[in-house]
Amino acid sequence: MSRRVKSIIYYEGAQSMELAFHCTIQLCELKTRIWRKVEDLSRGRGEEFQA
What is the pLDDT of residues 6-24, one digit of tens each? Predict the structure, then answer.
């Protein structure tokens, strides 16, 4: 049974994002998805992040 883990990441001062991901995700894949999300948010494209 996999469960979702929710966390909030703060970066560049006041900006933050909420992530939800399965606890079985590989760390390198999670890191890649986080960086993509940060890049999207910095471009103004805030979409929901699901891994």
Answer: 777 666 666 666 777 777 7
**Residue 30 forms part of a structural domain:** yes
Would you give the DSSP letter of residue 30? H
Count of structural domains, the chain = 1
- 47 assigned to some structural domain: no
Answer for the pair 9, 21: CB distance below 8 angstroms, yes or no: no
Using DSSP bridges, classify how beta strands 15-22 and 4-11 pair: parallel, antiparallel or unpaired: antiparallel
Question: Residues near 38 by Cβ (< 8 Å), separated by ≥ 6?
Answer: 11, 17
pTM for the model stands at 0.45
Pure H helices in the chain:
27-42
Assigned domain for 34 exists: yes
